[in-house]
Amino acid sequence: MSNQKTLNHDEVGTKFYRDVLSFFDFASQFTKHPQGLLEQIKVPNSTYEMRFPIRTDDGNYQVIQAWRVQHSQHKLPVKGGIRFAESVSADEVKALATLMTFKCALVNVPFGGAKGGVKINPKNHSERQLEAITRRYTTELVKKDFIGPSIDVPAPDYGTGAREMSWIVDTYSLLRPGINALGCVTGKPLSQHGIRGRTEATGRGVFFAVREAVNIPEDMKKLGLTAGMKDKKVIVQGFGNVGYHAALYCQEAGAIIVGIGECEGSLYDENGLDVAEVLKHRRETGSILNFKNAKNVSPANSILEYECDILIPAALENQITIENAPRIKAKIIGEGANGPVTSGAEQILLEGGKLILPDFYANAGGVTVSYLEWLKNLSRVSFGKIQRRYTENENLLMIQAIENATGVRVGEDLRQMLSKGPDERDLVNSALEEVMIKGYQDIRETYMQTPKTGSLRTAAFVSAIDKIAIAYLDAGIFP
Ligand code: GLU
Question: Which ligand 1 atom is the nearest neighbour of the CA of 370?
Answer without folding.
Answer: 8
